[in-house]
Specification:
The structure is a single chain. Strands 1-2-4-3 form a 4-stranded antiparallel β-sheet, sandwiched between helices. With 244 residues, the protein is of the alpha+beta class. Helix 1 packs across helix 8, helix 3 packs antiparallel against helix 9 and helix 5 packs antiparallel against helix 6. It is built from 10 helices and 4 strands.
């Protein structure tokens, strides 16, 4: 089997496959490696508020297939990857980033940090806790108003509500999902991102906390020719491209 070697090859090869060849297996270790590559994706403030649940168990595959509304992309898949947003882990992630920075700065007291080093540390120890902290949406609403008031006088970051921060976390997870699918395409493995799913049932099957959120479920396998529903259609590039 010829392997796609360039990024453009992988981009052109990737399609949302709805029917997989049930006679062809895929290597779980290769899928795991593609997930590992997905963790290299950019994430807002390097918070990495994601988890990747790699499903190889036939029992759980069957359960998730039902939770994916019996889509053929789920029923015929050899493996599934569930992208989970863990915004609730923001405290652990800020602490991990701060610890990494301190280690990279070397064995010296904070009083000897350069202004750049101190700014970076304050970003994770003060600014991000302010941005992510919330209580029943109240703090988020207050921060949202503050951002808009400041924005009347100078450029200001305005997306500070609880809903805004959820969007930020899901955007980062979406970037990781795309990296995973392109990594799979580079191995001539096929995928299909699914959003038509019962997220509550999926969280129950995977024993996820209520504070977690399902970003998408990605089915994996080897395509059947009929598994790609027609030629790729895209809106004309001139309609979506604006140069200023």
């Amino acid at each position: 089997m010829e392997i796609n070697t360039s990024l453009i090859d992988a981009i052109n090869y990737r399609r949302s496959v709805r029917i997989y060849d049930e006679t062809k297996e895929i290597d779980a270790e290769i899928v795991k490696k593609c997930i590992d590559q997905a963790t290299l994706s950019p994430s807002s403030s390097n918070m990495q508020l994601w988890e990747f649940h790699h499903i190889v168990s036939s029992k759980i595959l069957n359960q998730l297939s039902i939770a994916c509304l019996d889509q053929s992309a789920a029923k015929t898949a050899k493996q599934l990857v569930v992208i989970v947003v863990r915004k609730d882990l923001w405290k652990q992630r800020t602490k991990a980033n701060a610890a990494y920075l301190k280690n990279s700065f070397g064995n010296k007291p904070e009083s000897e940090y350069s202004s750049r080093e101190q700014f970076a540390l304050n970003y994770y120890q003060k600014l991000l806790p302010f941005i992510y902290a919330d209580f029943l949406g109240i703090f988020g609403a207050i921060k949202y108003i503050i951002g808009w008031v400041i924005g009347l006088f100078k450029p200001s970051y305005r997306q500070l509500s609880n809903a805004d921060m959820r969007i930020v976390a899901h955007k980062s997870a979406g970037l990781a999902a795309q990296t995973f699918m392109l990594s799979m395409a580079a191995k001539n493995y096929d995928t299909c991102p699914m959003e038509g799913i019962d997220t509550l049932r999926i969280k129950k099957i995977l024993n996820l906390p209520t504070s977690s959120e399902i970003n998408m479920v990605i089915s994996c396998g080897i395509r059947k020719p009929e598994g790609v529903y027609g030629d790729r259609f895209r809106i004309p590039f001139e309609s979506v491209y604006k140069q200023w």
